[in-house]
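retry 2 of 3: previous attempt timed out while embedding magnesium ion. Reduced batch size to 1 and resubmitted. Inputs unchanged:
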Amino acid sequence: MSNNPAMQHSSLRQEGRNLPPVQTLSVVSGKGGDGRTTVAINLAMSLAQQTAQVVLFDGNLSMGTIDTALNIKQKFNIADLVADEKDINEICVTGPYGITLVPGCHGNPEMSQLSQIQHQGIINSFSQLRTAADIMLIDNEAGISRSVLDFTYAAREVLLVVCDEPASMQNSFATIKTLSSNKECCRFRVVANKVDSSQHGLEIYSELCRQTDRYLDVLVEYCGCIPFDEEITEASRAGKALTETNSGSRSSRSFQRLAEKIMKWPKPDSAQGHPEFFLERLI
Ligand SMILES: Nc1ncnc2c1ncn2[C@@H]1O[C@H](COP(=O)(O)OP(=O)(O)O)[C@@H](O)[C@H]1O
Ligand SMILES: [Mg+2]
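retry 2 succeeded.
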């Protein structure tokens, strides 16, 4: 990751030229345990099964979880990129269905205290990625740390995972409020997780909208729901995504439906006027 912006910019231009734009989704939630990692991984698998080229970025920079969850051995990780020892292509690993994983590191506290400029360097480095990519999912830390804000502002879409628990609901509202406060994010796509039924998912969404409609000027769209499913926990214990172990389960079908929906969203076709992932593929 070069510290010289002019050099970085000119090399990004060369790398990004002629590559198609990439849809970018930042997966956020109000609190830990709501299911961001579960949604990011299983959605990535479902998208990849539907022939999309998927990049999965572990935004838990200091405590990566995706490599462990998927039983993937990583040699290098995001800390090597930040230290300028490896470039983005060298730290990537290939996961199931050809997914490109950008791994976080394990237990490096400095990685949780990076500056906004360092986050910007990480975001810019994605323009140098040579892998074919249609869509990237970012699995963020819980809540609204600096990295969550920076990575989410640099993505096109925000996928908010919410559960039917008071802390999840309350902090989801707080997350939407914070992310929309400087007008950087004004559309949020909601996925209700761990639901009993489709009706339950809609109720969670309606409850969230009651608060956002009253206090915030944002668009909150319902994307779908994922049922509570013991097989998800069992699959994660086995170090696999659900789609790899049982593609016929209810939750697996929900991820497939969600993936189908996402594939229909319009892809970015021009730059937004602020720093974003894969910017050089848009200019
Ligand atoms: N739909 C679901 N059904 C059953 N268990 C789930 C579901 N979604 C997530 N879990 C479980 O909840 C726990 C927290 O999920 P995780 O994805 O790690 O949350 P987060 O990344 O938001 O902290 C994990 O044990 C996971 O297996
Ligand atoms: Mg997680």
